[in-house]
Amino acid sequence: MEEALIAQARTWLAEDPDPETRDELAALIEAGAHEEIAARFAGTLQFGTAGLRGELGAGPMRMNRAVVIRAAAGLAAYLKKQGHSAATGGTVVIGYDARHKSADFARDTAAVMVGAGLKAALLPRPLPTPVLAFAIRHLGAVAGIEVTASHNPPRDNGYKVYLGDGSQIVPPADAEIAAEIAAIASLNDVPRPDAGWDTLREEDVVGAYLRRTDAVLTGGSPRDVRVVYTPMHGVGRSVLTAAFDRAGFPAPTVVAAQAEPDPDFPTVAFPNPEEPGAMDLAFATAREAVARGENVDIVIANDPDADRCAVAVPAPDTVEGWRMLRGDEVGALLATHLVHKSARGTFATTIVSSSLLSRIAGAAAGAGYEETLTGFKWLSRVDGLRYAYEEALGYCVDPAGVRDKDGITAALLVAELAAELKEKGRTLTDLLDDLAVEHGLHATDQLSVRVEDLSLIAAAMRRLREAPPVVLAGLHVVSAEDLSKGTESLPPTDGLRYALAGDEAGTVSGARVIVRPSGTEPKLKCYLEVVVPVASAAGLADARVRASEVLAAVKTDLARAAGI
Ligand SMILES: O=P([O-])(O)O[C@H]1O[C@H](COP(=O)(O)O)[C@@H](O)[C@H](O)[C@H]1O
Ligand SMILES: [Mg+2]
């Protein structure tokens, strides 16, 4: 058994083109680190919520040049079977972020595509994922790849794969590509020429992307809004500030220590605006600006590949002075803004996001509503899509330009909305209050548990399947669905959904819980929503207190039921 494992590791090592991972694996073999080697050879990285994602390191369960070359070769084989080739103009466009090895992985991908008889075009420098997603359709490419692990820890990298429709791959294409990857017997069979791909000009991609952002805003709408901005050590800054400038907004104040791309993300524990503490420096920058006598209306953050957008609003009664809006809150605000602008078409969100969007769309004549599984790979495919958002801080406000979430255009639209409200002496918070009075308070929260040992997640899911909760926070579970069987409108996914009835006193009209393993990180995620009726603005404060109580109690009871 051990001998077979070592033989497998040696075969891998002999073909690995990267001296760093070769040395790493050689040292593990030398040290007899069998457990560690076994973990790296336990299978191969699989396409998850957003492509391949994993820790950097040697072996098929890690992100490295050998894994990337295989993935690229598998995608190339798939594209060739679809009839694409250089002769038919089949171009694969390749972007990358500023993480460790991202540029190497991008270059390897270009070489493999050219070696396979396709055309390849590299983006000119580390750029946001939405710029790559835009470039695919803008250039008429047959596929696109962004080398990124988004907001994951510094030791991770990843590979987002798009086809010519500009959307990330879903079944069955992902399984078909995976089968092509699995069919590659040896890396030695994958030709990788040293040249032959194009490097796109800044003007042709970033320039074109920026011109497209004009479609997001209404000409002549207010622009007076003061923003503190952080790209969180990622690649968002240059494009976001250029977009703000082009639109006529005042230049955002950029968080200096996080302004430049840095693959080590030195000032944050996790470069994810959703994680506690990630916004601390941005809030400190905002407080300093205010202390200097400047105005700051909102704080905006992009995640490191700039496809997410986080927004914070002044909260004078808190220690930080700022409150992060939840993705569901920003999602509802942007939907309301678009409805006011008379945008029509389908408004879509995911099953783990707030149901408030269905209320907003339902109240707008001519607006449709749809729900999909988690991930923009699903949302971007909705027919007649006008707007999509997900609770994980992702927004697609211009599906004709970018069929994916886009943290740059979302920031533009948030800024326009804040400026319009400001002109009327109002704020984003005021608009959220209006929505709660009109539709009921839709309060959401997430219980997310990071694990070292992935089997803990499977165990929690098993426990819930064996003994589904019947009451949570005193509210009766009126339906418990196992989503792994699929539903009438949803393909199968590993998830559980509970609908809860309201309480007898009528202080809660209903609640909903979904539990699923993350497809991008070793986490179990539980998404909670509680709806509390609000009779008038005067009742809002009490409604918020009630919602927080119920959310907290659901969390406690659910954690107990799941044994996490
Ligand atoms: O990493 P990003 O910013 O691309 O975001 C990715 O991961 C998020 C979380 O997915 P999960 O809950 O499976 O971890 C998804 O919601 C999103 O659509 C996907 O693109
Ligand atoms: Mg991202």
From TrEMBL:
Gene Ontology molecular functions: magnesium ion binding; phosphopentomutase activity
Alphabetical UniProt keywords: Isomerase, Magnesium, Metal-binding, Phosphoprotein
Gene Ontology biological process: carbohydrate metabolic process; purine ribonucleoside salvage
Domain (Alpha-D-phosphohexomutase C-terminal): residue spans on this chain: 509-545
Protease recorded as keyword: no
UniProt cross-references to InterPro entries, sorted A to Z: A-D-PHexomutase_a/b/a-I, A-D-PHexomutase_a/b/a-I/II/III, A-D-PHexomutase_a/b/a-II, A-D-PHexomutase_a/b/a-III, A-D-PHexomutase_C, A-D-PHexomutase_C_sf, A-D-PHexomutase_CS, Alpha-D-phosphohexomutase_SF
Known cofactor(s): Mg(2+)
A Pfam entry, by short name: PGM_PMM_I
Domain Alpha-D-phosphohexomutase alpha/beta/alpha, first and last residues per copy: 46-185, 221-312, 327-435
Alphabetized SUPFAM superfamilies for the sequence: Phosphoglucomutase, C-terminal domain, Phosphoglucomutase, first 3 domains
Family: Belongs to the phosphohexose mutase family.
Protein name stated in the entry: Phosphomannomutase
